[in-house]
Amino acid sequence: MLRKFKISIDGKEYLVEMEEIGGVPQAPIAPTVAPEKTVADAALTPTSVEQPAAPKSIVPAGNDAMTSPMPGTILKILVNVGDEVKENQPLLILEAMKMENEVVATTDGKVTGLHVTLGQVVNAGDALITID
After folding, report:
1. pLDDT in tens, 8-34
2. Which of 5, 36, 83, 102 could lock onto 90 through a cystine, CB 3.0 to 4.6 A?
């Protein structure tokens, strides 16, 4: 959960967002109770809800996948599954702490798996891409 703080340093105020990792847990917010449905409402309610399909280029990650070096947000994906890449070639752009960081290929090879999407928030150690 992100929390905002206003900090004053040498008379200058800064607005800071921080992720709460531990500490005292907050009391959960009580869920709202939905009104009871009538027989007429049940007739109008669909019996099944279609879930959107995941993009076909996203595949489950194996143990050999490159991982995120830090938490951040995926800004750009520079390669596709099937692309040949060279060592140190930029693969994607990861925004962390308002800075854009290039994630580069560690070896030459072919991209066999893409495990993230644009705008996805990742943590350090999350699988990003697989190169074989």
Report:
1. 888 888 888 877 676 555 555 555 555
2. 102
